[in-house]
Specification:
Layout: E1 8-11, E2 14-20, H1 26-29, E3 32-36, H2 42-64, H3 93-107, H4 110-127, H5 137-148, H6 165-171, H7 179-198, H8 226-233, H9 241-248, H10 254-258, E4 265-267, E5 273-277, E6 292-295, H11 319-332, H12 344-355, H13 360-367, H14 377-383, H15 389-397
Antiparallel strand pairs: 1-2, 2-3, 4-5, 5-6
């Protein structure tokens, strides 16, 4: 059964509209209103014919009222244009992985990007040649189980840099990576797949419903004891000894200390030297609360003369170098307690403040934590201007290093 559209007919696969004008108006408008509907689809033609018919009625009304004195122009029919079709899932995992890592390298600091590059690199080594759309949930589960079999230290050696997942599995022995590390790797690969979905290269993320087997336990850092601080000081380490002392006497994080530049130091007359912890060309900050001005303990003042007069105070140090060197120092100082890391120096400072009777919210302003003085700490942060420089100086000076053994 052929489709019938009033005032329209199909000619050579294209629908045309034709409707005669009333005889009394043909001297002005011509014999008929003619227009191509620019489609061979009957449903589309029917809709367009209705639009043209409405225009026809408008022309007749104006002509009878004397508003039309010449033949009207055809109705403008907008034909939608379509961009070339992209078939989802055809691009290889390796191609997308390269694009993703290039983008992330511009967004992340070196340490964060290094972690993402390792995680995504493991995934690319297993599935790089496949089209992204061919990666299934079973593949995601298989990858997750293999990651769980990696050795704890296999990815940390420079000798294994760039090794594929299967090669790293062959080298794995002894203790396996923790569930927390597994979750980080799978999460970073999941972010890559989410990005592929966002870019229109993948319909859905197969890692969305895949979880790590085993419960991740939060890593707790222990505070250094006075005895351990004394043991570490007795080493007189020429690499990170000064940076460690800065952190012990100020509560700075490793990245905050090694990221200091000379312009971050402020002289406040009788109140002495202060360090402005802020984003600079060397590092960003962990949180907004981390931005602060901290008094430098009087025991640190003599050390400033031995540090560079411009630029970075610790130009040869990075967070990675500091944490690794601390591990060596810990062995040399015969410190065997679990959970003792460089960050333990920060916990030691907080402990000393607590023992000296410093209110918790005062200590928080020194070390760059959000105040927990009350349940409504947001309101407190809005209405309080914070403690004075004099109070900060008094707090810091209450902390004293134990004598080296």
């Amino acid at each position: 059964m052929s489709v019938r559209i009033q005032y329209a007919y199909l000619k050579q696969q294209t629908w045309l509209y034709r409707r005669n004008y009333p005889k009394e108006l043909q001297s002005i408008l011509g014999q008929a209103f003619k227009q191509s509907l620019k489609t061979g689809d009957a449903r589309v033609a029917k809709a367009r014919a209705a639009e043209v018919n409405a225009k026809y009625e408008e022309i007749i009304t104006k002509a009878r009222a004397g508003g039309v004195t010449e033949k009207p122009a055809p109705v403008q029919i907008v034909v939608p244009s379509f961009s070339p079709v992209t078939i989802v899932g055809r691009v290889t995992v390796a191609e997308l992985g390269k694009q993703y890592l290039n983008r992330r390298s511009d967004e992340l600091q070196h340490g964060g990007f290094k972690s993402v590059r390792f995680s995504v690199g493991l995934f690319l080594s297993s599935f790089g040649k496949r089209p992204i759309g061919a990666v299934s949930r079973d593949d995601a589960m298989s990858f997750t189980r293999k990651v769980a079999q990696l050795g704890k230290h296999v990815g940390k050696s420079y000798r294994t840099k760039g090794y594929p997942l299967e090669r790293l599995l062959d080298l794995s022995e002894g203790e396996r990576i923790s569930p927390q590390t597994q979750k980080r790797i799978i999460s970073q690969v999941g972010h890559f797949m989410d990005w592929a979905v966002y870019e229109g290269q993948l319909a859905s993320n197969p890692f969305k419903t895949v979880g790590v087997e085993g419960r991740a336990k939060p890593q707790h850092y222990e505070a250094l004891t006075d005895k351990e601080v004394s043991q570490l000081r007795s080493l007189h380490d020429d690499r990170i000894g000064v940076a460690l002392r800065f952190c012990l006497l100020s509560g700075m994080r490793a990245g905050e200390a090694v990221g200091l530049v000379r312009d971050d130091l402020i002289w406040k007359g009788n109140l002495g030297w202060f360090a402005w912890i802020r984003p600079n060309e060397v590092r960003t900050l962990k949180t907004d609360a981390a931005a602060r001005i901290v008094p430098l303990h009087s025991d640190l003042t003599p050390l400033l003369a031995s540090l560079p007069g411009s630029g970075r105070l610790f130009p040869s140090l990075s967070v990675n170098m500091v944490t690794k060197r601390f591990s060596v120092m810990r062995v040399q100082a015969l410190i065997q307690r679990q959970g003792v890391v460089f960050h333990s120096s920060r916990k030691w400072f907080v402990t000393q403040c607590e023992r000296a009777g410093v209110p918790e919210h005062f200590t928080a302003s020194i070390v760059g934590h959000q105040s927990a003085r009350s349940e409504n700490r947001m309101t407190y942060g809005i209405y309080s201007a914070g403690i004075s420089d004099e109070q900060k100086r008094e707090i810091v000076e209450k902390v004293g290093l134990p004598r080296s053994q």
